[in-house]
Structures are given as C-alpha cells and as structure tokens.
C-alpha cells in the first residue's frame, strides 16, 4: 500500500510517516498543497492523508483537484476544526473520510487500511492460497501453520501478489506500490526482495516468474 502524507507541520508529517512505514506501508510526504498535486500527478497512491489547513494551495483545493482529475486515491482529510459543518464541507469536496486532530495513531492506521480496501476490488480480510495465509491487519503470514518472519517489503510484495489473484504483477507495479518515491527504478530491489521471499516461503515454490512480464502466485501450488 502506498500513502501520501500532506501536512505542513514537518515534525508531525515525518513522525506519522515513520509510524506508517513501521506498519509496512510505502509513504511519501508533501509539506504543502502544491507539492501534493505534483506527487499525485506523478505517482499512484492508494490513500492520501490530507491536512485541510495547508498554506498556499489549501487542502480543500487539493481535494477538489484530485476529485476533478479522477485520481484513484482515497482521501482522508485531517483538520483541527471538528465541527459538523467542517466535516460536511470536506466530504462534499470529495474526501472519503474525515479525522479531527488530535488523533490516535491506531485509529489513523485503521482508517487508512479501511480506505485502501475500498480503493481495490473486494478482497477477503485474510488472503489464503493453498497452505499460505496472510492477514494484512494483524501483519501475520503463515504457511502450513508456520509463522513467516517477513520484512515489511516482503510482506507488502506478498500481499500485492496474493491480491492479484493469479494475475501477473510487473516489477514496475511492485516498485510503485510497495516502495516510496526515493526507490531507484534501475536497481535490482524488486528481484532481490522476491528472491528472499521465495526462500522464506519454502517448497513447493509459490511465486512464479513470467519472463518479460513480472511475477504471479503459482496456480495450484
């Protein structure tokens, strides 16, 4: 899952981003509305966490611009003002959810995950394939009852492959969805991560390489 944090309070933005990365998300940060519009024009995001009270380009205009452009990201709007009128206005502009400040970090994580599920085709809360079981909310993956010690990136790649339901996912798509904007597209990052994931999953092999296309979960593994 890839998330954009748009918050002009830099310390808060960096703190929230660090916490979300610990939850296994790929996170970018924009400190103003103009930067947010640049990033959303260039990248695919599942969720945009948007502070309403931004300097320069106001959060309302960012939200409205994303709605007009048909950007697929779900928008979670944050604001220090928590009146009903504020919430109604934000939702009318195209926001999908609303969270007043201050907020509990656990609630922020839960709302982001809920919005991300809504941005994708309907999936069960726990992904199961043969003996493999992956619970994105609990961050637990097992195979044949054996707990898998996966890194955040390995977990994210496995979740993306399972969510594709047997369809091929390209290395570019994995890089876009599981890493942030600082990932170098010319490195072997995806290949190395998939290789480590294969070793941890064990036999019989679950991840198939499709030449010149990408990776997929092997049918009938």
Principal-axis shape equals: elongated
How would a textbook summarize the main sheet? 5 strands, parallel
- In round numbers, the mean pLDDT is 88
The percent range for helix content is 40-55%
Pick out the low-confidence regions: none
One letter per element, helices H and strands E, the order comes to EHEHEHEHEHEEEEHHHEE
Helix-strand category: alpha/beta
Number of domains: 2
- CATH classification class of the largest domain: Alpha Beta
Radius of gyration: 18 Å
| Order of adjacent strands in the largest pleated sheet | 2-1-3-4-5
* Strand content bin: 15-25%
Number of helices: 8
- CATH architecture descriptor of the largest domain: 3-Layer(aba) Sandwich
Number of strands: 11
> Could you give me the name of the CATH homologous superfamily of the largest domain?
Response regulator
Termini, distance in Å?
A: 25 Å
List the helices and strands and how they pair.
Layout: E1 2-6, H1 10-22, E2 26-30, H2 33-42, E3 47-51, H3 59-69, E4 74-79, H4 84-92, E5 97-100, H5 105-118, E6 127-129, E7 132-135, E8 140-143, E9 146-147, H6 152-163, H7 171-178, H8 189-201, E10 207-210, E11 214-217
Helix pairs in contact: 2-3, 6-8
